[in-house]
UniProtKB/TrEMBL annotation:
Homodimer. Its EC number is 2.8.1.7. It holds the Pfam family Aminotran_5. One of its GO terms (biological process) is amino acid metabolic process. It comes from the Bacteria. It catalyses: (sulfur carrier)-H + L-cysteine = (sulfur carrier)-SH + L-alanine. It comes from Geomesophilobacter sediminis. This is Cysteine desulfurase. Its cofactor is pyridoxal 5'-phosphate. The keyword Iron applies. Belongs to the class-V pyridoxal-phosphate-dependent aminotransferase family. NifS/IscS subfamily.
Length: 390
């Protein structure tokens, strides 16, 4: 069975052009970029090229790009760095809907004596910047607010937030793992100090990430040892994956307009056709700005896990929350923070598209999902009651 892959916020296919770019750096060009000889030097050149490609996608300078092992490492490094830069400051601000890569770390730090403010979101999953303004004080070391949410695709006003935070003298970090490659970013005109990226969300392999560190932002490394990454991240570089990341960023830049038009049109068609065919649905975050590729649809009186299994039997891959929180039957922390009613939160499914998604795949979901929902509603007492009333 050929898969219909609509779970691109969990991970993406490695673009074949990306794979071709990285392939020689395993068995042929395996030199260490730190070596003095020509063999290492040619790899160093490709790493530099990759750095320039990532910088170009972000509108950043090449020396502001630090390669890491994943988005989680970038998030951890950003927060740890700020706390070391300002040892006297004990306050951290984040939001209730961050990815666990930020939230778990903040909660661990709160157990170690840091004061952590988790900003609320409204019913659409959107932030109120007045709450941020009220929370900021002279004790705030870092504010970490994600650029776009992995479950709903909701885009936060991070540029405005960054300006407010800078005015208070704190460091501003954003987890842009879901945003980079999907919407344009320009660090040259931004107040963001630190920004996290993950390779496997933009058609590069798993196990490579980036932390953007604005020139002049004080920074303390999480990993210490060798002088790699100009002392900002020790450890011999994952050269093949770094080179892949550079190529993936180059392709993302090239395809950005396409993502914003073709992918958005497919997502909007999926949304319109599913809401027309399935009664009692709501779109999580549908009333605010969202990533063009993400659709989180809540369907009353069904269990998300049941829907996923039946979709999976038809070859359709989606997700019932974030990839990292599925597996537990609790509604996700994001939907809970939004106050999505329990009956809807349980039946929330996320479809996330990519530039490889086709119209035929969207047709398949529109054909297969409505009968699955009807069947599951017929099987549940609440669902039957609801169907009887209609
Ligand atoms: N931040 C967000 C918003 C994510 O969606 C993810 C992955 O799902 C991460 C961070 C973690 O990235 P990685 O898997 O590269 O550690």
């Amino acid at each position: 069975m050929k898969e219909i892959y609509l779970d691109n916020n969990a991970t993406t296919k490695v673009d074949e052009l990306v794979f071709e770019e990285m392939r020689p750096y395993f068995c042929d060009l395996y030199g260490n970029p730190s070596s003095m000889h020509f063999f290492g030097g040619q790899v160093q050149k490709k790493v530099d090229e990759a750095r320039a490609r990532v910088a170009s996608l972000l509108g950043a300078l090449p020396d502001e790009i630090v390669f890491t092992a994943c988005g989680t490492e970038s998030d951890n490094a950003a927060i740890r760095s700020a706390l070391e830069v300002f040892p006297e400051k004990r306050h951290i601000i984040t939001t209730r809907v961050e990815h666990p890569a930020v939230l778990t770390q903040c909660r661990n730090l709160s157990r170690r004596g840091y004061r952590v403010t988790e900003l609320n979101v409204d019913g659409e999953g959107q932030l109120d910047l007045k709450e941020l303004e009220a929370a900021l004080d002279d004790d705030t070391a870092i504010v970490s607010i994600m650029y776009a949410n992995n479950e709903t695709g909701v885009i936060f006003p991070v540029e405005e937030a960054a300006k407010m935070v800078k005015a208070k003298g704190a460091i501003f970090h954003t987890d842009a793992v879901q945003a980079v490659g999907k919407i344009p970013l320009n660090m040259a005109e931004s107040a963001i100090d630190l920004l996290s990226i993950s390779g496997h969300k933009l058609h590069a392999p798993k196990g490579v990430g980036v932390l953007y560190v604005r020139r002049g932002t004080p920074f303390r490394p999480l990993l210490v040892g060798g002088h790699q990454e100009r002392g900002r991240r020790a450890g011999t570089e994952n050269t093949a994956s770094i080179i892949a990341m550079g190529k993936a960023c180059e392709l993302a830049q090239k395809h950005m307009d396409d993502e914003n038009t073709r992918v958005l049109a497919m997502r909007d068609r999926l949304q319109a056709e599913l809401t027309a065919a399935i009664p009692n649905t709501r779109i999580n975050g549908g009333g605010t700005s969202r990533l063009p590729n993400t659709l989180s649809i809540a369907m009353e009186f069904v269990e998300g896990e049941g829907v996923l299994l039946l979709l999976s039997e038809k070859g359709i891959c989606a997700s019932s929350g974030s990839a990292c929180t599925s597996g537990s039957l609790e509604p996700s922390h994001v939907l809970r923070a939004m106050g999505v009613p329990f009956t809807c939160a349980h039946g929330s499914i996320r479809f996330s598209l990519s530039r490889f998604t086709t119209d035929e795949e969207i047709d398949a979901v529109v054909r297969e999902l409505p009968p699955i929902i009807r069947r599951l509603r017929e099987m549940s007492p609440f669902g039957r009651e609801f169907l009887d009333k209609k």
